[in-house]
Amino acid sequence: MHLFEHHISTRGSQQMTKVTDMVREDIEKSGVKDGIVVVFSPHTTAGFTINENADPDVVRDMLQGFEKAFPTKTDYYRHAEGNSHAHMKTTLFGPSQTMILSGGELILGIWQDLYFCDFDGPRNRTYYVKILEG
């Protein structure tokens, strides 16, 4: 088993960062050809999604759609830190993703990439990549 730690500094209040290439570098370093790759965010306001990589408007549309569904500012949130919207968005995305590794390559669709999603930035974030051989 191989564990890698990554650090990301996000700039905006909501940001989706493509991290597929970082994970591919971890796979290469591990030497594992077949198995499972798990990415995990230890943050309650940041998580992962696998989504389209071809049209940047998809990321923009997703962020705007989630902002509309869970607005940053509203009268009914009670959480003292003021980031309830970020907790809700992260709950929908989830703290982790599991991917299949075959022949040293991630199995992803032609239009798919892995995104680290921060809904409470700007912040310095950490995420982990675990590669399981099998």
From TrEMBL:
Organism: Claveliimonas monacensis
PANTHER family: UNCHARACTERIZED PROTEIN YJBQ-RELATED, UPF0047 PROTEIN C4A8.02C
Gene3D superfamilies: YjbQ-like
Native organism taxonomy: Bacteria, Bacillati, Bacillota, Clostridia, Lachnospirales
One Pfam family from the record: YjbQ
Top-level lineage group: Bacteria
InterPro entries given in the database record: UPF0047_YjbQ-like, YjbQ-like_sf
Name of protein: YjbQ family protein
Assigned protein family: Belongs to the UPF0047 family.
